[in-house]
Amino acid sequence: MTDRVTAATGVADSARPDVERRVPTDGPAKETVGVRLDGVRKSFGAVRAVDGIDLTVCPGETVALLGPNGAGKSTTIDMILGLLAPDSGSIAVFGTTPHAAVRRGAIGAMLQTGSLLRDLTVRELLAMMASLYPRHMAVDDVLELMGIRAIAQQRTERLSGGQVQRVRAALALLPDPELLVLDEPTVALDVESRRAFWQSIRDFAAQGRTVVFATHYLDEADSYADRVVVLSRGRIVADGPANEIRAMAGMRTIRATIPEADDARLAALPGVRMVERRGSAVVLRCADSDAAIRAVLAVYPDAKDIEISSAGLEEAFLYLTGDGRHAGP
């Protein structure tokens, strides 16, 4: 039977006597590299999902994989977990293969989709899954960490969507993993639930654990990651702290209300790199905002409500991934 990480529980199918056991320690393993990907490629038919990724994650880092749909985030995560094998290149997790890391309980994972076993209370489910591991967090500690103690006696089939997500995260934390991997973990959560979820993950990471998460929420990457890795079309186009990612764009933003503005004409103005519509306003991403604003006012003297600001993470993301509605010269 092949070891795997399940989307339903985030735990490994490792409860067999012949499987390597994780030796209890006083904390996470001391390795100089947590996750390493070297020249990793993966295709599905004619589609190149991951195209030569080189990535190193140090122990204790929280790293966000940020990118649009189809950028390669989930495929990269599946390969880190050993659910997919790369076509070429190599992957190591704490100095060993993904499969070996899963077998010893070093990885906890919460994937995009999955369900919970029915006819059990939350506490019963956690206790049953904890029994699969020779080393695990106390059930009460996991309940407290994820803020789900109040629903511990509820049956899993009666939980709301947001509660299910938090229980799935609790299951991923059970083996007290050195590496926690999350794939779009807050899609089903409202704003307040997202904030509470990330506070729990931040508390876990504060214990020196390594966290890698995929998201398309820019605010999550900006607020909760030490590093942001931007992917586009299967490649890494930027890697660094959020403030460095913003600086990579090297742009400023002009926002204005311009009656009867023509997007193509705006995109052709000096200094303008991208044009975007937001309601009645036009947003210009500019490499040279001084030249751009002079050109805008020369062509559209009736422009009003003009605001000029430095690029945020969203602007940098759009610039780096080439996801602009209209691109200038």
TrEMBL record:
<dbReference type="GO" id="GO:0005886">
    <property type="term" value="C:plasma membrane"/>
</dbReference>
<feature type="region of interest" description="Disordered">
    <location>
        <begin position="1"/>
        <end position="29"/>
    </location>
</feature>
<dbReference type="GO" id="GO:0005524">
    <property type="term" value="F:ATP binding"/>
</dbReference>
<keyword id="KW-0813">Transport</keyword>
<feature type="domain" description="ABC transporter">
    <location>
        <begin position="35"/>
        <end position="258"/>
    </location>
</feature>
<protein>
    <submittedName>
        <fullName>ABC transporter related protein</fullName>
    </submittedName>
</protein>
<dbReference type="Pfam" id="PF00005">
    <property type="entry name" value="ABC_tran"/>
</dbReference>
<feature type="compositionally biased region" description="Basic and acidic residues">
    <location>
        <begin position="15"/>
        <end position="24"/>
    </location>
</feature>
<dbReference type="GO" id="GO:0046677">
    <property type="term" value="P:response to antibiotic"/>
</dbReference>
<dbReference type="InterPro" id="IPR003593">
    <property type="entry name" value="AAA+_ATPase"/>
</dbReference>
<dbReference type="InterPro" id="IPR027417">
    <property type="entry name" value="P-loop_NTPase"/>
</dbReference>
<dbReference type="GO" id="GO:0016887">
    <property type="term" value="F:ATP hydrolysis activity"/>
</dbReference>
<dbReference type="InterPro" id="IPR003439">
    <property type="entry name" value="ABC_transporter-like_ATP-bd"/>
</dbReference>
<keyword id="KW-0067">ATP-binding</keyword>
<dbReference type="InterPro" id="IPR050763">
    <property type="entry name" value="ABC_transporter_ATP-binding"/>
</dbReference>
<keyword id="KW-0046">Antibiotic resistance</keyword>
<keyword id="KW-0547">Nucleotide-binding</keyword>
